[in-house]
Amino acid sequence: MTAVTIEDVCRIAPVVPVLVIDDLEKAVPLAKALVAGGLRALEITLRTPVALDAIRMIADAVPDAVVGVGTLMSADDVTASVKAGARFGVSPGLSARILDAAEEAGMPMLPGVTTPSEAMAAAERGLRILKFFPAEANGGAPVLKAWASPLADLRFCPTGGIVAATAPDYLALPNVICVGGSWVAPKQAVEQGDWSAITGLAAAASTLRA
Ligand code: 3PG
Predict the structure, then answer these.
(1) How many A from CA of 15 to the centre of ligand 1?
(2) Cβ atoms within 10 Å of 207's Cβ, excluding its own
(3) Separation of 102 CA from ligand 1 center, angstroms?
(4) In angstroms, what CA-CA distances link 195 with 23, 77, 148, 198?
(5) Kind and range of the H or E element at 191?
(6) From ligand 1's centre to the CA of 205, what distance in Å?
(7) Is 131 a catalytic residue?
(8) CB neighbours (10 Å) of residue 197?
(9) Domain ranges of the chain
């Protein structure tokens, strides 16, 4: 498995799907549907009991997908996710323990920040690409626009409350490298196994960047 950087992950497509997988049987067809629509970097959140198995199955069965893990809350989560095959990690906030564990395991990280202070703390650790989370609740695109000049070296992947209609506002900003979101995999479509609908949403999302 080729190692990737966070920049590689964020440049694969304009949108990184954020996935909460309840039913393990849905994991591989869901990943295939998203990849077929052009979204190859996938964040599987550790919010369900089957999440690690889902990562393992997608990593094995969908070679075109770049599978990452989201909602990392501890160093143990990092270790277990790397073992399952996760190639990048996302956390809601900035945690030195998680960053240390990820560094040790060789897993590139996209940690969440909501303030310039947190962004500066991350930059002091050498991280240049950060998640802005939860984006909409923290002021959305205008905040990132205001950060562009003072935090000129940093790039962001805003996530949280973003939908197809609002994603372009973020993607138009020079300091936004991609956005994260769950809108490309609506719960009902996943439950019903409506994979063509999901491929359609992914295909639309994959052309969002101007
Ligand atoms: C999350 O739940 O991690 C993010 O908020 C992405 O989900 P959303 O696009 O539904 O906000």
Answers:
(1) 12
(2) 11
(3) 22
(4) 15, 29, 38, 5
(5) helix 187-192
(6) 15
(7) yes
(8) 16
(9) 6-205
DSSP label at 204? H
Task: State how far the Cα of 196 lies from the Cα of 139, in Å rounded to an integer.
Answer: 34
Look-up: residue for tokens 């500066």? Answer: 120
| Pocket of ligand 1 contains residue 182 by CB under 6 Å | yes
State both tokens at 177. Answer: 């490298």
* CATH number of this structure's domain 6-205: 3.20.20.70
43: annotated active-site residue: yes
Q: What is the pTM of this model?
A: 0.97
What is the SS3 assignment for 156?
strand
For residue range 157-203, what is the model confidence (pLDDT) as tens digits?
Answer: 999 999 999 999 999 999 999 999 999 999 999 999 999 999 999 99
The one catalytic residue among 7, 25, 26, 131: 131
Burial-class residue 58 by CB neighbours within 10 Å (0-12, 13-18, 19+).
Answer: buried
Nearest of 5, 68, 19, 71 to residue 41 by alpha carbon? 68
Nearest CA to ligand 1 atom 10: 182
Asked whether 199 lines ligand 1 (CB < 6 A), one says: no
Ligand 1 pocket, 160 CB below 6 A? yes
Q: Which pLDDT tens digit goes with each residue over 128-163?
A: 999 999 999 999 999 999 999 999 999 999 999 999
Which of these is catalytic: 7, 25, 43, 118?
43
CA distance 61 to 158: 29
